[in-house]
Amino acid sequence: MDAFICAIFTCRCVLAELKSLRESYSESLKAASSLITARCDHEKRKSAVACITEIIGAGNPEHFFVATQDADLRKKFQEEGLSLYLWHPLPANDFKQHKIAQFL
């Protein structure tokens, strides 16, 4: 069985957008700040969606994909044919059982 490494990234534009949303997204900013920051090549800040779209758009040499629970964002990316992973969180106990079941 082939193994692969998966790392979770964000980008500068996402961090900047979360900062601009202030207190209502402070926990999201804290979580996002702990992630690896992918380089976005544009000079001026873009919206988070525009930046992510550019990073995973044409070519996508880094093989990035988006994992999101945002239904509108999933629909937008699916319509554009961009790499998407449907993220469905499991309660802690279910997650542990799911992970154990994968290795049995």
UniProtKB/TrEMBL annotation:
Its main location: nucleus. It holds the Pfam family Fcf1. It comes from the Eukaryota. Keywords: Nucleus, Ribosome biogenesis, rRNA processing. Coiled coil: none annotated. PANTHER family: RRNA-PROCESSING PROTEIN UTP23 HOMOLOG. This is Uncharacterized protein. It comes from Actinidia rufa.
